[in-house]
Design a protein that fits this description.
Layout: E1 3-7, H1 11-23, E2 27-31, H2 37-43, E3 48-52, H3 60-70, E4 75-80, H4 85-93, E5 99-102, H5 107-140
Parallel strand pairs: 1-2, 1-3, 3-4, 4-5
Length: 141
Amino acid sequence: MRSILVIDPNPELRHFVASILARGGHTVRETDDVRLAAPLLRAEQTDLVVTDLAMPSHRGAETIEALRHEFPALEVIAISAASDSAGYLRLAATLGGPRTLAQPFMSRQLMGLINEMVAGVAAHRVYADYQSRRQGAFESN
């Protein structure tokens, strides 16, 4: 089980994505306002963000860059249903490697991507913990 933040101005889509993730056993928080994302991420450990790229007040690319700047280890899935979503998604793919998913998508596609990313986060944490213990043991000798 992982903590996931869903950022989307469309309440129907946001709730749809959140319900898929909750059924998958994840802890899910939602916001329609990208400006609340950073405070929410600071307030509670979050493993992954699912964000729409077509926001009314912010560009999705700017959102991803800002979140990655403050939270470099944060995993991101960028989604878009905009008429020119292919361009948005190509741009997002250049921003430090967020995964992308074009709408409409099936719940199994989203969960497959989430599970793949969560496994990567878990592996990274295990490795970082191992490196930390190894470094501590090395320094004590």
